[in-house]
Amino acid sequence: MRHFRLGLAVLLLVALVIGTSHAATITEVLPLGMLTVNTNADAGVNGDVSASFTLNSGSPANFNGGHFNWLNIVETGSPIFRPRDPTNPAQLVNFPWVDPLDGGSFGGGPPAFNDPADHLPFYWDEAAPLTLPLTNHINGRVLDFFDHPSFPGVPGTTANFDTYLVFVKGPIGQMMNRTFDVLAGWDWTFTENATGTGELAITNLAFFGLDGAELVEVNSALQQPYNFPGWRGVPGPPSSVLLVVGLLLVARCQFDRRRGNRLHPAQGTPE
Length: 271
Known about the structure:
Radius of gyration: 20 Å
Strand order of the largest sheet: 1-2-3-4-10-9
Number of domains: 1
Low-confidence stretches: 1-21, 240-247, 249-271
Shape: globular
Number of strands: 14
Largest sheet: 6 strands, antiparallel
Helix content: 10-25%
Order of helices and strands: EEEEEEEEEEEEEHEH
Distance between the termini: 56 Å
C-alpha cells in the first residue's frame, strides 16, 4: 500500500557508519519547505527518531491562517505495546492508536505513555496541560520532532509507526475546525533489544506517498473511540498551489525588508 515518491519529492538516504552503529537521514523537498528525518539507531544501540520541517519563509506557529504540527500513529506492534484506554483505563487500546492518546494514557502500566497530554490528536501539546508545548518545538522557521520509545524489561518488544507532517487550520489550540491537511509522512519501526535493558533499534525509515488509501488509514485510526473521533485528515492543497503560496510569501517578506530600509523622505530615517 506504500508508494515511494521519487518525482518532485527528493529522497536522500544517507548511511553514516560509526563503529557498529548506523545513522540514517532521509530528506524530502516539499513546496513550502524541507522535511528531514534522522535516526541514530542500529541493533543494540540506544537510539531515537528526530525530524525537522524548515519553512521557506514564515513561522510554523502562524502561517497563512494556521500552523504546523505532527501526527504520530502506532499502526501495529507487540500485544504489550498498548497504552491504557482513556475512555476506560481498566483496559488497553488496540492498534492503531494515536500517540499520545486523548489526555494521555492515565498512567499505570505497563505501559504509560506521555502522561498527561492535551485533548487534540497532534504530537506536541497545543492546549492545557501543555506538558510538551508545541511552541517549545518551534525555532524561527523550524518545527522539530523527537521520539524515543522504549520498553525496558521486555526483550524484543516492537512497534511500527507512521508519522505525518500536518497543517492545522486556525490558531494553535483551536478545536472548532477539526480537519487538518496531511502534507507528508514516513514509516519507522522500534524494537527493544534482546536483553530488554532499554536500548533499541530504529529500522525501516522511509517516506511514503499520500494517496487515497493512506488517508483512509489515517482517518480510520482517528475514528477509533479511544483515539480522536470527529477529527479528520484531508489531502493538502496541490503542490502547484502550495508552491505559489510559498513564492508569494517569500516575495512579501523580501518586499517588507526593502520597505523597512527605505528612507523617509522628510526625516531621512528608515520607516
